[in-house]
Amino acid sequence: xxxxxxxxxxxxxxxxxxxxxxxxxxxxxxxxxxxxxxxxxxxxxxxxxxxxxxxxxxxxxxxxxxxxxxxxxxxxxxxxxxxxxxxxxxxxxxxxxxxxxxxxxxxxxxxxxxxxxxxxxxxxxxxxxxxxxxxx
Length: 136
What we know:
Layout: H1 4-14, E1 22-26, E2 36-40, E3 43-48, E4 51-54, H2 58-63, E5 66-70, E6 80-84, E7 92-96, H3 101-108, H4 116-130
Antiparallel strand pairs: 1-5, 2-3, 3-4, 6-7
């Protein structure tokens, strides 16, 4: 079991959220492992036949032997998510998945995020590109 502090440090280092599913690949190859993975208090877990079990590869993941392949966030029906917004000073807006045309479009184009900060980061990236690649 990981302590809360250790879990937070690992998730921050790997730029993941708790229980966020991802895939992994061997570094410098296109060979993907066939399972989905997630990290929580139990450590690194993998999904096999719809069952989550502990994996022993957390050290290899942290050492860079494997690379994380982030999966697009798909909010559940009525789940809160955040969207980049270049039109306000807040740089994001909060909404819910109501299975509407707008929600489907955002999910399809991978512009919905689990956290405010992820939406803000994407907004800043878009603004930087609109300004010609500068951070001014």
